[in-house]
């Protein structure tokens, strides 16, 4: 599946952004989809994931209470609503998909088969 992200930008601390990822086919072709981020000189880490069938979600500790991941099967999109953004949220954000199940290793980038090109989020 091919993935294309959009929605990044520059915002002030406390602001909000909504990232969107469009899949080339049905999102149900992947059992698990997620958002990752990678700051300069850092590894790519999981932000949130969703089981496409059940809609079950899970968040990294830093995202809990501020970010919301969702999917729309009619539009074949995966979204990430980000509120109360902080400077430490500055990173390139990536959409990812895997045919594997969402499990305890969901935040490991190597477990995902497909990646988007990324969208930059800058918080000042």
What can you see in these coordinates?
Strand 7 (67-72) and strand 8 form a beta hairpin. Strands 2, 4, 5, 6, 9, 10 and 11 form a seven-stranded mixed sheet that branches. This protein has a four-stranded antiparallel sheet with strand order 1-3-8-7, with no helix packed on it. The protein contains no helices and eleven strands. It has strands spanning 3-6, 9-11, 17-23, 32-38, 45-51, 57-59, 67-72, 77-82, 91-98, 114-115, 119-123. The chain is globular. The protein has 124 residues and is mainly β.
Helix content: under 10%
Order of helices and strands: EEEEEEEEEEE
Question: Count of DSSP E strands?
Answer: 11
> What does the average pLDDT come to?
95
Structural class: mainly beta
Shape: globular
Task: List low-confidence stretches.
Answer: none
Question: Using only CA atoms, what is the Rg?
Answer: 13 Å
Number of helices: 0
Percentage of β-strand residues: over 45%
What's the main sheet like? 7 strands, mixed
Q: Report how far the terminal alpha carbons are from each other.
A: 34 Å
